[in-house]
Amino acid sequence: MGNGTTRSLERMAAAMGQLESAPVRFEAAVDIPSGGVLLALPALLATGLLRYTPDFYQLPKGFYGIESIFLLLALMALARLTAIEQLRYIAPGEWGNLLGLDRIPEVRCLRKKLEVLSQQEGQAAKWNAQLANDWMGQLPESEMLFYIDGHVRVYHGSQAELPRHYVARQRLCLRATTDYWINAMDGQPFFYVNKEADPGLLATLRQDLVPWLEANVAIPAPQIDSMAAGPLVQELKAHCQPWFTIIIDREGYSPAFFTEMEAKRIAVLTYYKYAGPDWPEEEFAVQDVKLAGGETVEMKLAERTTSLSKQRQVREIRKLSQGGHQVAIVTTHRTMETGLLAAAMFARWSQENFFKYMRENYGLDSLAEHAVGPVPATVSVVHPERRKLDASIRALTAEQNRCNARFGSLNVEGPMEAATMARYLNQKSELLQRREEIKLDLDKLKAQRKLTSKRIAIKDLPESERFDRLLPERKHFVDTIKMIAYRAETSMVHVLREKLARHDDARALLRRIFDNEVDLAPDLVAKTLTVRLHYLSHDAQDVAVSHLCQQLNATETVFPGSDLRMVYEQLGSK
């Protein structure tokens, strides 16, 4: 039955199908390694870890119930166990104490549970969407800002032939898949979609993310009151305030897209891709700008109304740095203050920081399974012939530019001998002839490209050009657990910062808490489960932890599957 097993009768009953799930029963224990993750239980439950579990997931009868599996996966994420195989090196009995069981499941058992939970494709996305709907409902109307960006997840395996993507952080084209994320202003995640063949940010916005936001973002109350008749968009058009705002990188710059979104009362904020000459410094004024982290800084800002293609009028805002560089942003938001727009745009780095933190601490890029499958037949990719023509046109264009440069640099300076003049004229003639040849070849290739469709469905590709995909269901399920864990961690960080002089130390301190030992003391009479965290290395940290424990105790959280109220304290405290 495995090391640490003490409930033999219950396990035999589960093996015979006579036990729905093992009852949660805590016993006194001391020095449980990494037991500090149990302090995150109130935050995990408040974030929604088990809120919709019965609606989306069920497990067959067995010793490990669905609540224990979900709690284990969330605690693993907080303990920085980024792969299920790492459970092989965790004391199973000690971690079983954290769940009210005799031991945690073995790796093979946990993989089987995940296989059952990931049988229905698309279920994890539905669960994630339901949670995201709750998370977005907690946003005030003034923060209806959604940051959208792609994250390239590199694949280092050999079982799947994935298309190549450019990985900016490595400056290489590698086999990978792309996830497009929706985050809040402070970087907290809402939802993501996976793209086996990356169609680009604009296509993903139009096809997936904007429709999803329209279906899930609540309509502001004043606008609801005025929607007695008529379609949603027409009613929203009557109000100057946009429904919500999406913030994207330069890749999403498109005047046509701005027009499409404005017709839906969705504002867009992005960097100006084709900013003109610098503005006079006299136009810039110093403003106090409150950043997403809460601190206030001074920025030199200026604003104008700018006409894009087809006379599209937008607001252009520029920030003047100390070195004289001007950063230009454009937006279709008509009412938000200039300083708030600047703060919102520059907070886009919170999403980049989220990707980096999740890669390093939560194993965002790690595989959840090695299974591969065919790409859906409806997915379209760039036509191979079109790609070859584009490459040839780029190569010839580069050669044409070199010829033009050389032709322009060949000049006669002063008198020269007949032989030198003949060589000069010969070089000019050869360059002129090559320029004409390149022009003819370019015209021919561009004509062929015009007749070649830009994209083609996977089912119409030659067999040699097709590729596989990594099955997304289990990965999305595990990533949703990690989203919940990250959000729970963030809520605890806010509490710790109330007692820390350096706010940047909060996450490091929380990781230290999660890695610390705890003692468990259940009291069946008082119906409490006391979790005593061992002292840390500094008094200032212990003060912050004591404050965190007080806030956690105020939630009066009951451990799932039991009637024991959680009580948190530090070892030796009264």
List the keywords.
574 residues; alpha+beta; 4 domains; four-stranded mixed sheet; 18 helices; 18 strands
Brief summary of the model shown:
This protein is an alpha+beta fold. It is 41% helix and 19% strand.
How would you describe the overall organization of this protein?
Helix 4 (66-78) crosses helix 16 (473-497), helix 7 runs parallel beside helix 16 and helix 14 (384-409) runs antiparallel to helix 15 (418-451). Residues 224-239 have low confidence and may be disordered. Helix content is 41%, strand content 19%. It is globular. The strands form four sheets. Strands 2, 3, 4, 5, 6, 7, 8, 9, 10 and 11 form a ten-stranded mixed sheet that branches. The chain has a four-stranded mixed sheet with strand order 1-16-17-18. It has a two-stranded antiparallel sheet with strand order 12-15. The protein has four domains: 1-119 and 535-574, no CATH class; 121-249 and 348-364, no CATH class; 270-344, no CATH class; 380-410 and 419-469. It has 574 residues and is of the alpha+beta class.
Q: What's the arrangement of secondary structure elements?
A:
Layout: H1 8-15, E1 29-32, H2 41-47, H3 53-56, H4 66-78, H5 92-99, H6 107-117, H7 123-137, E2 145-154, E3 164-167, E4 172-183, E5 189-195, H8 201-216, H9 221-225, H10 232-237, E6 244-247, H11 255-263, E7 266-271, E8 285-290, E9 296-307, E10 313-320, E11 326-331, H12 338-346, H13 349-361, E12 372-374, E13 380-382, H14 384-409, H15 418-451, E14 455-457, E15 468-470, H16 473-497, H17 506-515, E16 518-523, E17 528-533, H18 539-554, E18 565-570
Parallel strand pairs: 2-6, 6-7, 17-18
Antiparallel strand pairs: 1-16, 2-4, 3-4, 4-5, 7-11, 8-9, 9-10, 10-11, 12-15, 13-14, 16-17
Helix pairs in contact: 2-16, 4-16, 7-16, 14-15, 16-18
